[in-house]
């Protein structure tokens, strides 16, 4: 979830009000509408089903309105709260009164399920009631505090969007329970880790919603207590105290939630040591452990690369070594990439550098949107960068998207990120307006400097780099600064202010350009040239050595079996002298820009065996073939389960 730092003393930029920006047409409007029309109702059906998820049924049994046993996952409560966030945004943005009434009924149900002492996690409530051996706070992997954290954020958002206190009162009662628990842990010295620590961000949201310093103090205590955990693990980032962290390690979702929560805390209190840790962790991620698509957390299961050699510590869904970025077995859990966006946004609030929004944009447009099908109803849990023709081993998750996966944390997390995406369009500071995600939109702007106007963004971005900014309804034309984000990939472009042209070169790329002397009576034209380009990886990324990927603007492209006439994509080689051209294309009725051009294909001798581990190379020369590349987010949306590749070997003459 996004976070409102309007009154946070250490935040340098703040969001606009939640209702200030609307996507008006084009890419992000289509994504929002698809999410609202298909994903949100589909997820609601999944959560309502007793046979599929059993999540709502668990609440009904706890409330005494149904009979039965707990079913589904330990973290189903928290996943439902994430869906509620997506539904709240959808309902208020679209005026869906039926959905709002449904949310009210869910809030009432959750309140009836809550215990008098404030405790609220359905598996443990039913376990204690039925004496089946399950009890509260007895297993750190039971996700109770994870459920609490998402309750806190959802309830805070419900208050912000609807003005209603009902959900917030439930959350405050649960927070008081957590407060008693943590104060006792501080006295006894028996603190436990809370895996997937959503509660740091959640407690900060309670503080910002109520301005009650009690919840700020509880957030600080929660982070402090993790430093007192005995026999901690790299998997949970608690083997050493937070302020001693040097590398980003362990479970990627847990890491990203942890550092996002600490960034939230740093917006309220000036702590140079925490800030230093955040900067170290970010640099380790962005410089050495981030996929081209924005995915993160490359490793399925293994031993921590940083633990004692003789004492192996299990890690899963994890950050591995620097540059350890496999393609076929890339894990890249969707929740991790959603978490990295939340972390990056909070880092931007502390220090508004273009790098953070470059990565937010890369992640949102590529790996996040790849995690959901174009029809909005099927999902990837992990996000590979290559699908092979056949595998001689079985991966944990399916190689195609599924309507329902047992670990259903990712779909509602993604749904709330897309529902809230318009909040990433702009941020404000004392001196002006900062541009974040580009997309056709209308925004009502009021700044501290006194300027007040409506800003309309007309653009076909990310398929076209022309962006027109139009000012209207100018209530106060006080001067302000407009901070234009120049993407890191830019090599040429310009900004036009009336008759004046400001050239854009690689020297301006990856930074903000502040415009001050513009007129509200004239449009501002921003043009980012978007030729297709070849991208290479660091020499220590073993799986991309001698290979390149094709990008255009902020989009990563891939090739799938239907777009190449060869028997296998393994024989395809990029011609670095070829210029790929954008063409209009549709998949499932969704218009997009594909890229077309010629590639080389490797000639294979008649004795070549695709099953041999090693064999003598008999060079048979290169021929040429015509292929199509599609945006990575659109892959696995056609009636085939063939190959897909982002990285391809290169050849040139």
Automatic annotation (TrEMBL):
Signal peptide: none annotated. Residues 535-649 form the Non-reducing end beta-L-arabinofuranosidase-like GH127 C-terminal domain. It comes from Cuneatibacter caecimuris. This is DUF1680 family protein. Residues 20-421 form the Non-reducing end beta-L-arabinofuranosidase-like GH127 catalytic domain. It comes from the Bacteria. One of its GO terms (biological process) is carbohydrate metabolic process. Residues 433-517 form the Non-reducing end beta-L-arabinofuranosidase-like GH127 middle domain. Transmembrane segments: none annotated. InterPro entries: 6-hairpin_glycosidase_sf, Beta-AFase-like, Beta-AFase-like_GH127_C, Beta-AFase-like_GH127_cat, Beta-AFase-like_GH127_middle. PANTHER family: DUF1680 DOMAIN PROTEIN (AFU_ORTHOLOGUE AFUA_1G08910), NON-REDUCING END BETA-L-ARABINOFURANOSIDASE.
